[in-house]
Amino acid sequence: MTTTFLEHVRSRLALHELRDGHGHPLLILHGLGERSPSAIPEAVQGWKGPIFALDFTGHGASTVPVGGGYTCEALMSDADAVLAKLGRVTLLGYGLGGYVGLLLFGSRPTEINGLIIMDGPGLDGGGGRPTSPSLLHVSASDLDGSAPDPWALAELASDIRPPSYAFDHVRQIEMLSNMELAVTVVSLGRPEWLTAILESPVVVESDVATALSRFALL
Predict the structure, then answer these.
(1) What is the DSSP annotation of 12-35?
(2) Picking from 95-104, 121-130, 141-150, 194-203, which range would have the lowest pLDDT averaged per residue?
(3) Cα end-to-end distance, the chain, whole Å
(4) In this model, does residue 133 exceed pLDDT 70?
(5) pLDDT of residue 126
(6) Alpha-carbon distance 75 to 96, whole Å?
(7) Which of 49-63, 91-105, 128-142 has the lowest mean pLDDT?
(8) In 20-168, which ranges are E strands?
(9) Exposure of 44 by Cβ count < 10 A (0-12 exposed, 13-18 middle, 19+ buried)?
(10) 154 three-class SS
(11) CA pair distance 23, 20, nearest whole angstrom
């Protein structure tokens, strides 16, 4: 595994190359509290092109900022920095990474060659609707600068994900990506935002092998 560090805003992002090669790259986005795999996951062994994986801010070997302030949109910005380096990619996201991948795809519909959403930590977030306000608290003894950042775990686990917001991103994909099938849902979990996007004709349910084969041919 080869690791490249990207300077992005105030973060130093760790981008891991799990396998080099020619052809279309696959970018893996990990779940909440996780880090990039150190080896190629069995589920993506069949991908023929290069395989990369990103450590989000506050995770893995990337920067752990002081004071939190995490949002899924900020993590989307992390992934967008990788897109600027690699060019057009196919995204495979676990849990939180699947949701972040959807936001990025909706924001860059002509620069992504499909998204695969897998089960993983952070898939649900804080649900689809606001709840009673609560004050997040992280013990000072846990803030030792190591990853995963406790603030990331607290803030991203309570991140509200309105179904309409997710569907707006899919609508962008549907209108601008020129892809008949753009998002594949492999996960068994069905939070509200994921149920909502399944109503789009460009979103399908499938197994991961079929999804990888489909996007590899595009």
Answers:
(1) EEEEEEEE--SS--EEEE--TT--
(2) 141-150
(3) 26
(4) no
(5) 87
(6) 10
(7) 128-142
(8) 26-29, 51-55, 89-94, 112-118
(9) buried
(10) helix
(11) 10
Structure tokens at 196: 């909502």
- State the number of CA atoms in the 13 A half-sphere of 21 facing the CB: 13
Fold of 2-216: Rossmann fold (3.40.50)
Q: Over the stretch 152-165, which tens digit does the pLDDT of each residue have?
A: 999 999 999 999 99
Cα(147)–Cα(60) distance, integer angstroms: 6
> CA 194, CA 54: separation in Å to the nearest integer?
23
Chain mean position to CA 172: 17
Domain borders along the chain are 2-216
Digit-coded pLDDT (tens) for 22-39: 889 999 999 999 999 999
What distance in Å separates the CA atoms of residue 85 and residue 15, rounded to the nearest whole number?
Answer: 10
- On whether the CB atoms of residues 35 and 60 are closer than 8 A, the answer is yes
Res 67: pLDDT? 82
